[in-house]
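User: I'm curious whether this sequence folds into something compact or stays loose and floppy. Could you predict its structure so I can see for myself?
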Amino acid sequence: MKKFLFAASLFLAGLVGLQAQTQIKPGIGVNMTNINGEGTDASGQVGWQIGGSVAFGEKFYVEPGLFYQTSSVEYFTSTSSPVTDLTYSGLRIPVAVGLDVLGNADSFAGLRVFGGASGLIVTGTSSEFYDKDEIESPQWGVFAGAGLDIAIFYLDLSYQWSLSNVQKDIDQIDLGKSKGIFITAGLRF
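Assistant: Here's the prediction. I'll summarize afterward.
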C-alpha cells in the first residue's frame, strides 16, 4: 500500500508540475503569401488564420498547434494581364520549438524566438481556374520567428518557406512554392 501511495503521489506531483509548464494559446491573425513559379509574376494578398496552440515547457518549449488558414495570391503570366486571384484554405498544423530569450512562460513580459515545421491540409479553393484537387495537399513548410508576451497577451511574427509546390500539375502554369509572413495575436493561459 505504501508503494501505491508513493507512486500515486509522484504521479500527482508530475501532473501539477506539467500543468505549471503548459500554456494554452488561442489566437487569430493575418498572413501575406507570395509564390515563385516559372513564367508567373505573383503578388501576395492578405489572408487570415484562426486557431490555437499548446506550449509545453518553461524556458525551452515545444508548441504544436492547429489553425484554419486562408492564403490568397494574385498572379500574372508573362504574356497576359492578371490571370486570377487564387485563394485556398485549409488546416495548418505547425510544430515549433522555442526559447524564451527574456523571461519565461510565467513572466509578466517576455521575448521568444522559435522555429519549426508545418503542414497545410487544403480543404477548399475559391478560384475559377483551380479547384481543390489541383492544389497540392499536404503542403510542407519550415518557419522561424519571434514572439512578444505581455501579461496574458502574445504577439507572434514568423516567416515560412514552403517545401512543396502550390499545385500538382505544372504543365500549364507553374505556380511554384509559396513563402509568407504570419502575424498572430492572442491570449495565453
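Summary: Strands lie at 22-35, 40-56, 60-77, 82-102, 109-125, 139-150, 153-165, 177-187. The first helix runs from residue 2 to 20.
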